[in-house]
Design a protein that fits this description.
With about 300 residues, the chain is an alpha/beta fold. The protein has twelve helices and eight strands. An eight-stranded parallel β-barrel has the order 1-2-3-4-5-6-7-8, surrounded by six helices.
């Protein structure tokens, strides 16, 4: 499977009681498809998978697949602390007809590279679907290192890796030594560097509420090869990256961003809380300036 373009890890809209708002989720799915994103991810951390049971995650994946109705590929996240739960998610994804899996390191366990690789290969056997690996040592505790990549890279299903380490040397390593594993940007403030090193996809939570702007950077750099204009777009996006990452309010900012598009997102599930008024105003100002600036840059390209 070739991963090309913008892949959105979809939020999960909740009501004030923490129940899924299914009509709101359908509206978000439709909005993203109509905006032109290239694929959706159900069951990612942006969707608050850490607050959900396996059954809830499968229900969300099934609903998303049905509402997509073939309009866009669906990737299902299988990241959990327990391998049996990841297997259940992988098997469920295959059963509903998902296009691929997003497979992460089990958090907190701190597995060795061999143990981590064997976990991935176990999930692989459960579904026999294309796999995008997810390397996020900041949350998982360990890197998907060279021993790991050498082991899992033997599987024909291991197609790509979402690289979220923040270490630019990892980008160099993947591009140079593992060209058979497609590199996907998983570190938003390094998107330009990823594209310069050959990445052709970007898994970005901000595309939940700014899909056109994320697509603009992808198209400018990857499709058109115009890195001069790409630098201008990236510069305009950097204030958003800083706001999203500051103070551990990532999910809250993304959900408020979705609210700004006119779609219901609701509060996050506990232990997280919604943004306060000052944080909302800051995000709103950043989004206004970003949209205006990128619109002007793209108008100049026509």
């Amino acid at each position: 499977m070739n991963f090309e373009g913008i892949y959105t890890p979809v939020i999960t809209p909740y009501d004030d009681m923490g129940q899924v708002r299914w009509e709101a989720l359908e509206a978000v799915i439709d909005h993203l498809v109509e905006a032109g994103v290239h694929g959706l991810i159900s069951g990612g951390s942006t969707g608050e998978n850490y607050t959900q049971t396996v059954e809830e995650r499968l229900e969300l994946a099934r609903f998303t697949f049905e509402k997509l109705a073939g309009r866009s590929p669906l990737i299902v996240g299988t990241g959990t602390m327990r391998t049996p739960d990841s297997i259940a998610l992988a098997e469920g994804a295959a059963k509903i007809g998902a296009d691929a899996l997003l497979v992460a390191t089990p958090p907190y366990a701190v597995p060795t590279e061999r143990e981590n690789a064997l976990n991935v290969l176990t999930v692989d056997r459960a579904a026999d679907l294309p796999i995008m690996l997810y390397n996020y040592p900041g949350r998982m505790g360990v890197n998907m290192g060279e021993e790991f990549l050498d082991r899992v890279g033997r599987s024909r299903n291991v197609c790509a890796i979402k690289e979220s380490s923040g270490d630019i040397n990892r980008v160099h390593l993947l591009a140079r030594d593992y060209p058979h594993i497609q590199m996907a940007c998983g570190m938003d403030d390094q998107a330009l560097e990823f594209f310069a090193w050959g990445a052709r996809s970007w898994v970005c939570a901000g595309s939940n509420f700014l899909p056109a702007e994320h697509i603009a950077l992808y198209r400018t750099c990857v499709v058109q090869g115009d890195f001069a204009r790409g630098r201008r777009i990236m510069s305009a996006m950097m204030p958003l990256m800083r706001v999203l990452e500051q103070g551990g309010k990532f999910i809250q900012c993304v959900k408020h961003g979705v609210e700004l598009t006119g779609h219901a997102a609701g509060p996050p599930r506990p232990p997280l809380k919604a943004l306060n008024k000052d944080d909302k105003r800051e995000l709103e100002q950043v989004v206004r300036v970003l949209k205006t600036t990128i619109e002007a840059i793209m108008a100049g390209a026509e």
